[in-house]
Amino acid sequence: MKYKSQKVAYWFFALSMLLLSLQIIYGFIMGFAHMGYDNLHDFIPFNTARAVHTNLLVVWLLSGFMGAAYYIIPEEAENELVSVKWAYIQLISLAVVGVVAIVGYHFNYWEGRKFLEIPRPLDWLVVANVLLFLGLILFTLYKGKKRTTTSLVLTMGLVFAALLYLPGMIWFDNQTMDSFFRWWVVHLWVEGVWELIMGGILAFLLIKITGVDREVIEKWLYVIVGLTFISGILGTGHHYYYIGAPKYWLIIGGIFSALEPLAFLGMALFAVAMYRKGEKKHPNKIALMWTLGTAIVSFVGAGLLGLAHTLPQVNLWTHGTLVTAMHGHLAFWGAYGMIVFAAISYMMPNMTGRKLYDSGNGLTAFWLSNIGMIGMTTAFAAAGVAQVYMERIMGLEFGDVQNEIQVHFLILVLCATLFTTGVGIFIYEFIRYGQPTDEALEQHP
Amino acid sequence: MLSKSHARTFFLGGTILSFAVFLGLSWHTLSSEVPKQTNEAGLTPEVIRGKHLWESNNCMGCHTIFGEGAYYAPELTKVYERRGDAYIKAALMSPVPWSPRGRKMVAYALPESDANDLVAFFKWVNEVDLNGFPPKPKYKVSQNK
Ligand code: HEM
Ligand code: HEM
Ligand SMILES: [Fe+2]
Questions:
Q1: How far apart are CA A60 and CA B92, in angstroms?
Q2: How many structural domains are present in chain A?
Q3: B115 Cβ under 8 Å from any chain A Cβ
Q4: Does A226 sit within 8 Å of B10, measured CB to CB?
């Protein structure tokens, strides 16, 4: 850690880990409901559990991104954060908005639009919160000595993510229009601007961990985010096949979304190549594993499993089945969950001055969580493929099919237990690091 | 060899070009095609009230519509055709959880006027031209249940 203000990152990470724990609890509630044990129905019906599960996911990831940005931007810009006090206010307001929304979901206070369930009045609080965050980041960058490509790409990702939230706030009478713009948020986030955030954090970590020349890393960063947008923007069309939009989206969406995995492949090759090239052998092996891990698992979860159902001929049959949930889990985990874990693993020792990274616990956490998540993905895949064949191709009733595939949710819950154990160990290590301290400050070069 | 400034040009140029094409196509879709494919004239006050009810109860938190939503309860795009209004209204107005095959739906016990609005919404949804979704099953298996 080079600047005292970087310490605020810690509290964003702590909030992130807390919300992740809650997200997992609601995941189990849904896993059991799919198995036929919907015992909490009267208090937490499935739609409540689902809205909480996915919204907590988005908020813990955002909190993790924000923490990473508060750490990275001062170091890259070579300047203290402009106001630590306001950063804490932003943290608290983020937690408050998140908690109010989640509590509201238990009392039928929501808008049933997948992933955008936060009611519009609360949306304005989200907007205020994000503006405050961006203000702090942009002002720090503006006053800083340097504007590196890494910090610019990261900031661009954050600014665009904020802008793209807005189309999701407009009301439409027509369900097709509603869906059309919902994808401007959901798709253009995860297959567009969030990849810039991921790329920016990844580049920062690779520069620090491998010691490869910044110019080389940042050149490839541009190529990767270029591929992201060229494929991802028109790739939005893969959500327009079957919602009441014209047929040309089948061609455009099909072609461009099939190119999207290239950006993730680029990310994986890039991370591995930089690791091979690097002369510096950084002692923080755990951070290195999460960094390479995120690049590789995102290629599998988002790239390959996305490709598996993105062509219109396939998507016609799989659209809106458990096949989508299979891909959603490994993609979110690999690309965005793991990059947050990578940032935390690299930054915690630097903020607290305690070098706990050569413990076996870190390795166990990495392998258990990843093996667990891959198992969960496989369980969803088995359930999803069986559903497509029985319900869509053979024409059996939805409910009968669901009763047939219950057993896959037993496997899901078992694998989720492995995953949760891994995450639990990671959080245990996080707590063991303790709080950040000024004593961890490095001498300025 | 590729230089950093070439890479930056590739990124900026590619982004601006893609985004421009995307905006153009979106404009065309929304201004001239969607109104036709979705029969915008059919968006009566009942349908719109039905959509409000659909959202304020987060039905999408269990069901899908146009293939979007959750995977816990049946796809409802063609529910009007499949079940008809009486069945749909019974499910919505039931004071105990509707549960034909084991899984429970929330017991909404809606007043009849709200149930009618939702039926109007489903009827509109049923008629939207979805380019062939949901596909017709290739086989029709007989179920002995
Ligand atoms: C990190 C990146 C990605 C994440 C986090 C992600 C996540 C998701 C999620 C959560 C959904 C469900 C969305 C909803 O129904 O509201 C979804 C749908 C989909 N994704 Fe991804 N995805 C990613 C990348 C990709 C890529 C690169 C491709 C294609 C190559 C792809 C193809 C699809 C398709 C075709 C659907 C629609 C499924 C359906 O018709 O039900 N995704 N994705
Ligand atoms: C560990 C325990 C977990 C369990 C048991 C679990 C289970 C589930 C279940 C049953 C669903 C609902 C599918 C439906 O609509 O029927 C779901 C949705 C979802 N979960 Fe999880 N989950 C867990 C963890 C996670 C994690 C760690 C992530 C992200 C990194 C995640 C991301 C998602 C997403 C994106 C969806 C929406 C998928 C879609 O709509 O296609 N879940 N989860
Ligand atoms: Fe997408």
A1: 35
A2: 1
A3: no
A4: yes
Residue A443 lies in a domain: no
Residue nearest to ligand 1 atom 14, measured at CA: B68
Rounded to the nearest 10 degrees, what angle do helices A8-35 and A84-105 cross at?
10
Query: DSSP strand E in A248-397: where?
Result: none
- β partners of residue B64: B69, B75
Give the per-residue pLDDT at A445.
Answer: 47
E-strand ranges in B14-143 read 64-65, 68-69
A417 within a domain of the structure (yes/no): yes
Q: Give nearest CA residue, ligand 1 atom 15.
A: B68
pLDDT in tens, chain B (145 residues): 789 999 999 999 999 999 999 999 999 999 999 999 999 999 999 999 999 999 999 999 999 999 999 999 999 999 999 999 999 999 999 999 999 999 999 999 999 999 999 999 999 999 999 999 999 999 987 665 4
Contact A211, A280 (CB under 8 A): yes
Asked whether residue A442 is assigned to any structural domain, the reply reads no
Asked if A319 lies within 8 A of B133 by C-beta distance, the reply is: yes
Tens of pLDDT, residues A229-272: 999 999 999 999 999 999 999 999 999 999 999 999 999 999 99
Find the domain containing A282 and state its range: 4-436
- Rounded CA gap, A187 and A184, in Å? 6
Which of A182, A325, A393 shows the shortest C-beta gap to B71?
A325
CATH number at residue A242: 1.20.210.10
- Mean pLDDT to the nearest integer, A25-49: 97
Q: Is residue A444 part of a domain?
A: no
Could you give the CA distance from residue B106 to residue B95 in angstroms, rounded to a whole number?
A: 9
Token pair of B47, please? 């349908």
Residues contacting A294, CB < 8 A, separation 6+: A198, A202, A334, A335, A338, A339, A341, A342
State mean pLDDT over A69-97. Answer: 97
Give the mean model confidence (pLDDT) for residues A140-167: 96
Q: Which of A45, A27, A22, A38 is nearest to A372 (CA)?
A: A27
Query: How many residues are listed for chain B in this entry?
Result: 145
Closest by Cβ to A112, choosing from B14, B38, B55? B55
